[in-house]
Write a structure and sequence with these properties.
Keywords: Signal
Organism: Paraburkholderia madseniana
Structural class: alpha/beta
Distance between the termini: 48 Å
Strand order of the largest sheet: 2-1-3-10-4
InterPro entries: Solute-binding_3/MltF_N (IPR001638)
Pfam families: SBP_bac_3
Helix content: 40-55%
CATH architecture of the largest domain: 3-Layer(aba) Sandwich
Protein name: Transporter substrate-binding domain-containing protein
CATH superfamily of the largest domain: Periplasmic binding protein-like II
CATH class of the largest domain: Alpha Beta
């Protein structure tokens, strides 16, 4: 009885403290979805950058957030409908801006991973080789030039869709596709001899693309989204985001990814 009473008091104190501090409104539970993608999150190990980020977000906000695992395609649909409050490491485009807001916490470039035996040395080579098939993850968008390539090849029926990275790596090894788009979170797989021996990296030469906390406009009022954005900005400012990234990347690469100018 005493233990239950103390628990209730502590919960009330945390709730009141959070409200007076101007933090997010924790009067209801929230939902957040991760997706299985390289160093962002691995279902096999239950570890990753986004797992660490969500843990810290929960701790700082003091809110109850139920974390689940979904495909990226399902995440965007639920964010749009308002059935999901948050996801992580999302990038914006005109369509997504209609139903989602973002709180940026890192930025990175995209690259084209191609088979060495395809004779491809740049992006133009890939596009001009009419037998070259590109593999992409369903509902993923990338940097400007990468998106343009995907769209053009889609119109030529030269794009193969997959639910994640592993099927694309297998397709690349089996010559079912000749290239796929990657980012730094995918680097560990490149250390596998069977992939490293048959591939090379081609640059798009696009600027880094900001990634952030995805917030559903239908589920969260604008004022509350600003509070969550302030929480993410605080995590960047005090070095928390950098320390998370340094667990997974060399310090110089981690610094380049988290030290960027965030736009609203």
């Amino acid at each position: 009885m005493i233990r239950n009473w103390l628990g209730g008091v502590l919960f009330a104190v945390c709730f009141v403290s959070n409200a007076f501090a101007g933090g997010p409104d924790c009067s209801r539970p929230f939902t957040l979805a991760l997706h299985d993608h390289g160093l962002l999150y691995s279902l096999d190990t239950d570890t990753g950058i986004d797992k660490d980020f969500s843990d810290e977000l929960i701790r700082r906000s003091g809110c109850q957030i139920k974390v689940s695992l979904m495909s990226r395609a399902r995440i965007w649909k639920l964010i749009e409908s308002g059935a999901l409050d948050f996801s992580l490491s999302g990038i914006a485009n005109d369509e997504r801006n209609q139903y989602a807001s973002f709180a940026w916490y890192f930025s990175n470039k995209y690259y084209l991973l191609v088979r060495k035996d395809a004779g491809i040395h740049n992006v133009a080579d890939f596009e001009n080789n009419k037998r070259a098939q590109l593999g992409v993850i369903r509902s993923f968008r990338y940097s400007t030039s990468a998106n343009e390539l995907v769209d053009r090849l889609t119109s030529e029926n030269r794009v193969s869709l997959a639910g994640g990275l592993e099927p694309l790596y297998q397709a690349l090894i089996l010559r079912q596709i000749q290239g796929m788009i990657i980012e730094p979170f995918d680097y560990p797989a490149l250390d596998e001899k069977k992939i490293r021996d048959v591939t090379t990296i081609v640059e798009f030469n696009d600027p880094s693309v900001p990634h952030g906390l995805i917030m559903s406009k239908k589920a969260l009022p604008a004022a509350e989204r600003e509070k969550w954005r302030a929480l993410v900005d605080e995590m960047r400012a005090d070095g928390t985001v950098r320390r998370i990234f340094e667990k997974y990347f060399r310090p110089d690469l981690a610094e380049s990814m988290v030290n960027f100018k965030a736009s609203p």
